[in-house]
Amino acid sequence: MSDTTLRSRLGKLPWLGLTLLVLVLDLLSKAYFEGWLEKYQQVEVIPGYFSWTLAYNTGAAFSFLADGGGWQRWFFAAIALVVSVVLVIWLKRLKAHETWLAVALALVLGGALGNLHDRILLGHVVDFILVHWQNRHYFPAFNLADSAISLGAVMLALDMFRSGKADKRGATAHD
Fold it and tell me: In 3D, which of 123, 130, 135, 124 has the Cα closest to residue 147?
C-alpha cells in the first residue's frame, strides 16, 4: 500500500493526536486544581477579572439540568459518547484539504472526552476557570475541555460560513 493510499484511507485520523493532547491536558489540569483548591475556593489571578476556583457541575453547559436528580449524568454521558463516535467517523472521512475542519473536530472531540471521563468516573465535571467582572460572575466556571469545545465550535461555524460563501460563488468549498 502506498503512502498516498494509506493517507487517503486514514482521512484526518492523525489529528486524533490533538484530541489526545487536549484530553491529557484537561485531565492533568483538573487533577491539579482538585489537589490544590477546596470546593468553591477562589484564588484571584487578575483581581476583579480572573480567578482559579474549584466547582463541580452535574449538568451540562451553564449547569443546565444540574439539579436533575442524577439521571442527567448518564444522559449527557450517552450524548457525549455518540457525538464522539460521530466525530471520529467524520474525521476519517475528511479529505486531504480539510485541515481546518479536522482541527475543529479534534478539539471538540478532546473536550467531549475530557468531560465524559469526569461525568462517568466522578459523576460531575470538574471546573476551575472563573472569569468575572468586579466580583460579579457573568459566566459560569469552566475547564480546558470546555475551552477546546468552544474553540472547535467557533472553528466549525467559521468553516460553515467560509464553505457557504465559496459554494455560492461556485468555487471549491475549502482551502
Answer: 130
